[in-house]
Design brief:
Radius of gyration: 20 Å
Keywords: Gluconate utilization, Oxidoreductase
Strand content: 5-15%
Family: Belongs to the 6-phosphogluconate dehydrogenase family. Belongs to the HIBADH-related family.
CATH class of the largest domain: Alpha Beta
Number of domains: 2
CATH superfamily of the largest domain: NAD(P)-binding Rossmann-like Domain
CATH architecture of the largest domain: 3-Layer(aba) Sandwich
Structural class: alpha/beta
Protein name: Decarboxylating 6-phosphogluconate dehydrogenase
Distance between the termini: 50 Å
GO molecular function: NADP binding; phosphogluconate dehydrogenase (decarboxylating) activity
Pfam families: 6PGD, NAD_binding_2
Number of strands: 7
Length: about 290
């Protein structure tokens, strides 16, 4: 099938390549002309000839997504579909779906996880929307997801995909914080002489073995004591939104909430634990890190 893809950054650019490898035609637009296939959204839409058209948006949440949806509403036709694959708040999905529906355009929200590794291993996808709209986009979902039976889910109505991805990221916060706290404690113990190899030993036969643990070992292989990093880790909107949703629903999230507040602490001082969190974020998502002073 044909797909228009808006936003060709670290995620979007690799997604374009993986979809193409799946046998589909992708026309990509980005503000950076060096990576774009076309010069404007209008040109992108004009080149999609096999209707109904599908345009997948991979731009930052908030104003950038809103302005893109607004422009597409004026360019697309009834029966076409917009997919928001960025990190939008689920409440924005409902607004975008309603705005596009007024023009007869369908909307699917899709939480995407896979970071810089998705091109090789596939992306975990969580999508929400009407069954008929999801079915139209399904060939692209199938091209992006990991091989096998898992890695993609129609989570429910519009907003469900980004809500599920938000909860995923909240869990990710807490898991990274647990690894970071354990690493700092091991580093502080005089009796432990090789923290990196302790972490490596956990990769097989333990209940905490995981891809996140593998990435921690990768980071320690690159810099055994993370001496080249500052202990600063940014918090994404999704971490905050997870805690806000828990408050609204009356659901206790002590571990996730504490991990969010630990990020706040890291932004005030150079935290040893946040060196590990920063290293892990860089390993799985290519997020920027700050060098030690």
């Amino acid at each position: 099938m044909e797909l228009g893809l808006v936003g060709l950054g670290k995620m979007g650019g690799n997604m374009r390549e993986r979809i193409r490898r799946g046998g589909h035609t992708v026309i990509g637009y980005d503000r950076n002309p060096e990576v774009a296939d076309v010069r404007s959204l209008e040109e992108l839409v004009s080149k999609l000839t096999g209707g109904p058209r599908v345009v997948w948006v991979m731009v930052p949440a908030g104003e950038a997504t809103q302005s893109t949806v607004d422009e597409l509403a004026g360019l697309l036709s009834p029966g076409d579909i917009v997919v928001d694959g960025g990190n939008s708040r689920w409440t924005d999905d409902e607004k975008h779906a309603e705005e596009l529906a007024a023009h007869g355009i369908g909307f699917v929200d899709c939480g995407v996880s896979g970071g810089v590794w998705g091109l090789e291993y596939g992306y975990a996808l969580m999508y929400g929307g009407d069954a008929e709209h999801v079915a139209r986009v399904q060939p692209v979902f199938d091209a992006l997801k990991p091989e096998g039976s898992f890695g993609a889910v129609h989570a429910g109505r519009v907003g469900a995909g980004h809500f599920a991805k938000m909860v995923h990221n909240g869990i990710e916060y807490a898991m990274m914080q647990a690894f970071a706290e354990g690493w700092e404690l091991l580093e502080a113990a005089d009796s432990v002489t090789d923290v990196r190899e302790v972490f490596r030993s956990w990769q097989e036969g333990t209940v905490i073995r995981s891809w996140l643990l593998d990435l921690a070992v990768n980071a320690l292989d690159d810099d055994e004591h993370l001496a080249g990093l500052r202990g600063v880790a940014a918090d994404s909107g999704e971490g905050r939104w997870t805690v806000e949703a828990a408050i609204d629903s009356g659901v206790p999230l002590p571990a996730i909430t504490a991990s969010l507040f630990a990020r706040f602490t890291s932004q005030q001082e150079d935290s040893p634990q946040m060196k590990m969190v920063a290293a892990l974020r860089n390993q799985f998502g290519g997020h920027a890190v700050e060098g030690s002073k």
